[in-house]
Amino acid sequence: MNSSNHATAATGQNGPVPESTSNQDDLYQTAINRLKHIYRKKLKPLETNYNFEGFHSAPLTDMDIEAKPMVLLLGQYSTGKTSFVEYLLRSPYPGAHIGIEPTTDRFIAITDGPESKVIPGHAAAVAGGLPFHGLQKFGNSFLSRFQVSQMSHPLLRSMTIIDSPGVLSGEKQRIERGYDFPAVIEWFAARANLILVLFDGHKLDISDELKAAITTLRGQEDKVRIVLNKCDQVNGQELMRVYGALMWSLGRVVHSPEVMKVYLGSFWTNPPQHRYEDCRDLLEKEQHDLLQELGELPKTAAIRKINEIVKRARLARVHALIVGHLRERMPSMFGKKKKQAALLDSLPTEFQKVQLKHNLAPGDFPDPSTFREKLQLYKLDSFNKVNLRLIDVVDDALARDFPQLMGLFPGTSSHQTSHAFTGYSTGGQSESSGQPGPSRTSTMASGDTDPPSYNVAVSSPKATPHSHTSRY
Length: 472
Fold this sequence. Notes:
CATH topology of the largest domain: Rossmann fold
Strand order of the largest sheet: 3-4-2-5-1-6-7-8
Number of helices: 17
Distance between the termini: 8 Å
CATH class of the largest domain: Alpha Beta
Structural class: alpha/beta
Number of strands: 10
Largest sheet: 8 strands, mixed
Order of helices and strands: HHHHEHEEHHEEHHEHEHEHHHHHHEE
Strand content: 5-15%
């Protein structure tokens, strides 16, 4: 790209970027600053007072709240997770390995940076500009299998992508990981804006470890999308059967009445020669819908942050009421051990008492068995009793502060920021330039082996006050 194209990228195809884009960036920063203040002053004291960290997650830092949208990729080995990232970026990221054998052996965070480089896990966990401080709790064994891959790319100015190790079958590989794989998945899932679980049409079995990982996504179902990849390797009739088999397999793992959104697609940077074309139109539409959803993430970054903090506030409030209630049920002197055992055995009943007393929603309560597991590590009389002042402060935030914050975003769904996947639009006119644009799934074209060029228009509060349009 020559210097004139660089200038175009900095100012937009048709001159300076409208003032509204800068206003939207200012609005984002205003919302994030207020959100940090609300969390620090009203929610964090409640979390600290009732050891929320010991049961759920560590207190959020300013970097956690400021972090760009995050996309987490999960799946068994060779389902196309790393290839999917390459498909989005149109080039390999630093440290990427692709093959039919298990290749990605670590968690890799792909982020924007001035130059292509790999930051080892221990250094990334203490780096001031990265939101990965909380990963230190998983120890040296995990940090040795974590890295940050930085590269300069317009898409990465709007989001961070987490590529995870492929899940294998068998007990041996699970034990030899050396760290709690489901717990790490849970940590990333809590911070992710979108979770893509990839399946290969030829390998639909769900191993025990993948089942455990999917189970940790409970409570994050609104973020989860299933991607059935490599669909052009089967014909239309076989695709119907594969889809049905996938639904059956998921039904045995995901115990939820809601149906997860499933996307069909084939995300290749170098498509194989043998591909079925009878479902091409369907796959193009499905891929377009998935890319469109990914492109929406930067638009709603602040709203999603608010949503996550509100969810956390409700969880922290219920947590405080539960442990405070259990503390009040403990005797002052004798029989503490026996009483604690009785309370742990009757935890669902105690949950019900708290729910009725404080008029809480059943869906706000944690899973009793998981909560009991963690509660056994503590003496109940070591917790603080219910502090209604702290509870009232959080109630005030939920009733007044968060609604006022949401009031900053009228009409958020239609016209806030540029689309991050403009160049994937179907032929016709490119949205950002008004010029003919490439097909959104030109990698599916017969005989096409090279990744096509495309436009990426990104307006990110974490990048610059104007949109970036680059030609690849």
